[in-house]
């Protein structure tokens, strides 16, 4: 059995013709919702990266969210404390704005962490702003 797609379009499996008998059993509105939900799940990109503390050279594996809408690197405050990263206080707090341009309820960013970040054989010195990210440990913005 070949694992190759019949088309160069990687989303060809979502084409209405490929849905086969499902088209007869659902109306057009439901079908569009199905396809949109499937595509939405593909938008989230998670990477397993390695972090190295500069002081102790201790390595930590972490799952990071790659987000093209974010313009910086962020580490969760709880994660930073639990893993023992050295947090440096910023000279000036950084105001955080949400997508809707409103000030973030958690307030300004007061600390940063410097570490080495590893991904697939590549190492980069990183400076990450520390704030409350909830269940996400790292957010990697597209710089």
Tags for this model:
alpha+beta, disordered N terminus, 2 domains, Cathepsin D, subunit A, domain 1, six-stranded mixed beta barrel, 143 residues, single chain, globular
Polypeptide structure, described:
This protein has 143 residues and is α+β, with helices and mostly antiparallel strands. It folds into 2 domains: 12-41; 45-141, Cathepsin D, subunit A, domain 1 (Beta Barrel), CATH 2.40.70.10. Helices cover 17% and strands 38% of the residues. It has 3 helices and 7 strands; from the N terminus they run ααβββαββββ. It has helices spanning 22-25, 28-41, 77-83; strands at 45-53, 59-67, 73-76, 87-94, 109-119, 122-131, 138-141. It has a 6-stranded mixed barrel with strand order 1-2-7-3-6-5. Strand 1 (45-53) and strand 2 form a beta hairpin. The longest helix is centred in the N-terminal third of the chain and has 14 residues, at 28-41. It starts with 21 loop residues before the first helix and ends with a strand. Mean pLDDT is 77; it is low at 1-39.
Order of helices and strands: HHEEEHEEEE
Indicate how many domains the architecture comprises. 2
CATH topology of the largest domain: Cathepsin D, subunit A, domain 1
- First CA to last CA: what distance? 42 Å
Shape: globular
């Amino acid at each position: 059995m070949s694992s190759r797609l019949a088309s160069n379009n990687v989303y060809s499996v979502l084409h209405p013709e490929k849905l086969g008998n499902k088209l007869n059993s659902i109306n057009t509105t439901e079908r569009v919702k199905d396809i949109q939900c499937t595509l939405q799940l593909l938008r989230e990109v998670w990477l397993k990266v390695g972090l190295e503390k500069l002081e102790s050279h201790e390595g930590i594996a972490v799952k990071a969210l790659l987000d093209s809408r974010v313009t910086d690197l962020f580490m969760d405050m709880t994660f930073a404390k639990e893993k023992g990263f050295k947090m440096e206080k910023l000279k000036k707090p950084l105001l955080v704005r949400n997508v809707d341009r409103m000030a973030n309820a958690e307030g300004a960013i007061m600390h940063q962490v410097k570490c080495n970040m590893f991904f697939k054989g590549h190492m980069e010195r990183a400076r990450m702003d520390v704030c409350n990210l909830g269940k996400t440990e790292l957010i990697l913005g597209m710089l």
